[in-house]
Design brief:
Blueprint lengths: L8 H21 L3 H4 L14 H28 L12 H21 L6 H28 L9
């Protein structure tokens, strides 16, 4: 988790984890897997099969993640450096998070009216999904191997 030199402390770490967790859940829920694998049939989870509900939750969690990232980066920069022990544990993880933010931004901008060709949209969708899967696998590797003592510079 967060150490004493982590910008924002434990509150920011919990908010970051909450945002990432809801993003993962709502992102997978936007694919038709919740109904197909009977997750939506579990009492209290029928809302997971509703695309518009999970889409709204995904946007809300993305806004929370962007807010936490801005808050922590601002605190880290003000404290005299961008070395910290939170978020993606590797440079690769930060690169994937950046790809997620950029592809997600284009996808959201498209929903606001920007024309993006179907082929380009397919590439954006695959890049977004690939970056999410890559970030998830990176996180699993870090959990299994453990985080190194020296946090990467961002």
């Amino acid at each position: 988790m967060a150490s004493n030199n982590s910008p924002g402390g434990k509150t920011a770490s919990w908010l970051y984890g909450l945002a990432v967790g809801f993003l993962l859940f709502s992102g997978f829920a936007q694919m038709p897997i919740m109904k197909r694998y009977y997750i939506a049939d579990v009492p209290g989870l029928s809302w997971t099969a509703d695309f518009f509900t999970t889409s709204f939750l995904h946007y809300l969690a993305a806004a929370l993640l962007l807010g936490v990232l801005a808050w922590r980066l601002t605190l880290a920069a003000r404290e005299g450096g961008l070395r910290f022990t939170w978020g993606p544990a590797t440079f690769w993880g930060w690169l994937l998070l950046g790809a997620l933010v950029i592809t997600g931004g284009f996808k959201a901008y498209k929903n606001a009216g920007l024309f993006i060709s179907p082929f380009t949209m397919m590439i954006l969708d695959l890049a977004h999904l690939g970056a999410a899967m890559g970030l998830m696998m990176t996180g699993l590797v870090v959990l299994v191997r453990g985080r190194k003592k020296n946090a990467p510079a961002a």
